Amino acid sequence: MLEDLTTAASSPTAWPAAYPQGYAVVDVETTGLARDDRIISAAVYRLDTHGEVEDHWYTMVNPERDPGPVWIHGLTSEVLEGAPLFQDIAEEFATRLEGRVLVAHNAVFDWQMIAREYARAEREAPVRQRLCTIALSKELGLPLPNHKLESLAAHFGVVQQRAHHALDDARVLAEAFRPSLRAAAAGGVRLPLHECRPLTEWADRPAPRIGQQSGGYGSYQPSSWRPSRKRPACPYPNPGRYEEGKPLKQGMRIAFSGDTSVERELLEDRAVEAGLHVATSLSRLTSLLVTNDPDSGTSKVVKARQYGTPVVDEAAFGQLLRDVEPADG
Description:
Distance between the termini: 23 Å
Structural class: alpha/beta
CATH superfamily of the largest domain: Ribonuclease H-like superfamily/Ribonuclease H
Number of domains: 2
Order of helices and strands: HEEEHHHEHEHHHEEHEEHEH
Largest sheet: 6 strands, mixed
Helix content: 25-40%
Oligomer: single chain
């Protein structure tokens, strides 16, 4: 079916009139995943109505704080020290986005990071709609083993050269988006477009400045501005344990142990928003334990060893959160 759609899309057939007039395929690398983290590099591929590349742009950004997980993005404090601040590249970035649909893999994350940076700079990002390529691949029914960018790229035969480098990730996504867009056009598929509402103000809490050490994704002191509250029950059944190499699935029971770089409550919020069940204790039903110290003697770590519960660190969990599989049914 998909092959038929792709073949049809390559022929000079009528293009859906309701489709956008242009796209900005974006990837940003960041100091972490929390709401106070910063962009450290950004790339944009501008595409025309039919998904053809018009140009591309890349920049590093000095986050004015610790760069976070260098082992993931490779950008050290020394490299970023001489990079421009976000307010210095905000205008150029805006020209790349203006009048276009923002396209990204897990687009809500990229959009939120961009919106916050513009709010810090007391500006407004010129984006009104976004399109997530994960959502589009689901609309097309692509036979992907998971929702990772590398899987989408492999499906379309796109070769990735530097994973977690903003320019290469944006290139890979642009090359995979074009056949996806054409398949959607040929099949009359409605694009999964979502409204973007820019922030109008922003206030950061203190964070480590560039050159200082942190625990990975940015160490923040607990704050009192988030009221404690009881979270609603997870609406999805527990699908079982996490298996290495596979995505998390909505309904999985996640437990945390020990200190985390991202404020624990923020990390738990992200898990809940993704459809996971945050457990306060560990049992045989726990799907995954997240800890940065798997050799500690905490009760949760000890029980995880006894029960054979899978264990990952915070950085790995952060990556898994970007590709949570929907619950069955």
